[in-house]
User: Which sequence fits this backbone?
């Protein structure tokens, strides 16, 4: 069973901070925040999943990516794609603090996999349509939560903070499934880097465009918000210079060390493809 | 009770067809790929002797496999170029590690290159996986995200066919990949869900879902239920010939005008009609979300 | 996981290679290919520790008859000695045919 932990406010905190005073788009959901902020005269679409104790689906009340949330993200990302079809492609920023996906019987019945697929599809489609897509990880980025809301971005940024956690599964569950104790899992993460729950270790994998240090993730100062906005804007500028797909996560010094096998698979498969 | 054999007569033709069936489920991934491709056309890429095994499993005292549990094979299907990406469910539950997931992502990228150069090739995914391999957590997940990206990039050029065979089914991040495919074929013995029943039980409690209640589980995630509620495009029996035929039939439909994961407004309308406080059961859902209703 | 290495005398060369099996519960995979050295070099990686003597007995019996110069790799996930022998025979069959 889930242990009851206090609901995280980070998604909302950073959404509000980065949206300035932009009027939020009405999503019809308390759990999905969308706004078009104006940064130096340019519209940037921000999206965040936040806890909603009144969520109509009980298993999605703590900031999980549930059925409604995935489809809503797909809707609001596609809304921006459709609106910008003949004009400037606005950047899209996913603010990530997601307690994984919603786990439940109803979620299973109603096909939550499709909801996450639709969200991932929308972000990937936006990326391919020329929208710079950035994900800013400010808290938890677990499992399907990140796959649907963040992983399809051109660039991943994260705050360097002990409560920023990127992983395929919650630590307690991963321990049970791999038949280890939580302590063993922590120990393992020190040598087997992809197993680590520590964002500084995660940064060594070459998946992050930038790890932003020195920021109070729970209560950022005005200067810290400006700093983060600056880093996101720099990432957007970088995407405009070097758009492309997700291969920037392979073409960097960290990946050459810790994703050497990924790189080798691509190289050798290409060699054999037409052999 | 009135049950006679004449309701469903076992004709000679039906009996012969049944006896001639060749099970796909009983095959290993490599045999499956070989059986789908035209005889003599199977060519494996990054096979066992290339020894691209997981760099992470031995560090954890886990025996690796020489192909890391994914078979990539090029060949012909009914005379046309195809690439089969088959996951071996017997190795680590079909879990996607850095190497295995990268093999699929890289094959999809190469297929896209061929299609862009006017050399069409049909991509077929045989999905038999519990999702991301937890022993390679973040790198497995990163490569699964790359599979998602590649499916979305490839499918405007050629239909991407997903097949969920069984007995493991298709879960986790790879259920998202299944949702991104142009067409999805399911065996009756297959299951499809984001979350494995055991994980739901563990995360949400046994009152939410009893993972050992097989009847309930099949009603939620089984091939027939997914087909009847339009999460899959075809439901087939466990037979090689039928699988080959259905892959060709789905491919012949061409690239869909809008893929399932692009039908956002339709699914949102469907979802809005559900009251979580008074939810339908599996059978009721078949009535309110019938197959064939979606574009 | 436990890794073991064995080496056996060989009388003749091997011209083909073969792969059989899968690293699944109660099963194993065998990779066998020609070697430049005049011996059969066998590496075993197994998920079950502490059965070196059993492995030695099974492999001694098989490679005592096989007598080919080969590199052999076995990745085992808890197969019984019977299954190990079966897979080795299967691999030998494939390299002979």
Assistant:
């Amino acid at each position: 069973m889930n242990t009851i932990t206090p609901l995280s406010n980070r998604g909302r905190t950073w959404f509000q901070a980065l949206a300035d005073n932009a009027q939020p788009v009405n999503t019809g959901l308390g759990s999905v925040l969308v706004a078009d902020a104006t940064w130096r005269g340019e519209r940037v679409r921000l999206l965040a999943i936040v806890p909603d104790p009144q969520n109509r689906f009980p298993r999605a009340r703590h900031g999980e990516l549930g059925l409604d949330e995935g489809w809503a993200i797909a809707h609001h990302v596609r809304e921006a794609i459709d609106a910008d079809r003949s004009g400037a492609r606005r950047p899209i920023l996913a603010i990530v603090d997601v307690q994984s996906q919603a786990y439940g019987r109803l979620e299973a019945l109603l096909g939550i996999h499709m909801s996450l697929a639709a969200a991932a599809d929308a972000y990937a489609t936006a990326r391919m349509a020329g929208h710079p897509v950035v994900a800013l990880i400010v808290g938890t980025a677990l499992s399907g939560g990140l796959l649907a809301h963040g992983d399809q971005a051109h660039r991943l940024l994260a705050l360097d903070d002990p409560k920023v956690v990127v992983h395929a599964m919650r630590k307690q569950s991963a321990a049970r499934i791999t038949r280890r104790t939580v302590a063993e899992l922590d120990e393992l993460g020190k040598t087997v880097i992809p197993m680590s729950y520590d964002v500084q270790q995660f940064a060594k994998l070459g998946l992050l465009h930038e790890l932003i240090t020195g920021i109070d993730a729970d209560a950022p100062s005005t200067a810290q918000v400006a700093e983060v906005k600056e880093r996101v804007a720099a990432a957007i500028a970088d995407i405009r210079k070097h758009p492309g797909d997700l291969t920037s996560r392979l073409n960097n010094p960290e990946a050459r060390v810790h994703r050497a096998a990924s790189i080798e698979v691509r190289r050798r498969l290409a060699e054999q493809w037409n052999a | 009770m009135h049950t006679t054999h004449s309701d469903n007569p076992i004709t000679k033709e039906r009996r012969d067809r049944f006896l001639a069936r060749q099970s796909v489920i009983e095959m290993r991934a490599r045999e499956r790929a070989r059986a789908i491709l035209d005889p003599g056309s199977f060519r494996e890429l990054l096979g066992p002797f290339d020894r691209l095994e997981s760099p992470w499993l031995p560090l954890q005292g886990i025996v690796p496999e020489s192909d890391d549990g994914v078979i990539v094979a090029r060949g012909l299907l009914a005379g046309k170029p195809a690439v089969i990406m088959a996951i071996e469910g017997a190795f680590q539950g079909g879990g996607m590690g850095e190497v295995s997931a990268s093999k699929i992502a890289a094959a999809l990228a190469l297929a896209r290159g061929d299609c862009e150069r006017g050399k069409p090739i049909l991509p077929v995914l045989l999905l038999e996986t519990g999702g991301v391999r937890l022993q390679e957590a973040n790198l497995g997940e990163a490569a699964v995200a790359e599979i998602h990206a590649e499916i979305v990039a490839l499918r405007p050029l050629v239909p991407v066919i997903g097949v969920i065979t069984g007995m493991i089914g298709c879960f986790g991040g790879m259920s998202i990949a299944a949702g991104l495919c142009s067409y999805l074929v399911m065996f009756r013995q297959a299951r499809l869900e984001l979350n494995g029943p055991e994980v739901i039980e563990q995360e949400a409690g046994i009152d939410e879902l009893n993972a050992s209640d097989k009847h309930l589980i099949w009603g939620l995630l089984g091939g027939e239920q997914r087909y009847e509620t339009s999460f899959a495009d075809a439901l087939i029996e466990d037979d090689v010939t039928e699988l080959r035929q259905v892959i060709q039939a789905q491919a012949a439909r061409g690239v869909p005008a809008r893929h399932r994961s692009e039908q956002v407004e339709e699914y949102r309308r469907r979802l809005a009609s559900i009251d979580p406080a008074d939810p339908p059961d599996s059978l009721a859902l078949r009535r309110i979300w019938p197959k064939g209703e979606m574009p | 996981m436990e890794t073991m290495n064995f080496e056996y005398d060989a009388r003749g060369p091997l011209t083909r290679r073969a792969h059989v099996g899968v690293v699944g519960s109660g099963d194993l995979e065998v990779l066998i290919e020609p070697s430049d050295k005049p011996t059969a070099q066998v590496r075993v990686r197994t998920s079950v520790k502490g059965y070196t003597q059993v492995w030695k007995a099974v492999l001694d019996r098989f490679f005592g008859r096989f007598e080919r110069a080969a590199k052999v790799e076995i990745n085992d996930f808890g197969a019984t000695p019977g299954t190990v022998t079966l897979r080795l025979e299967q691999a030998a069959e494939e390299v002979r045919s």
Notes: The CA atoms of residues 87 and 142 of chain A lie 35 Å apart.
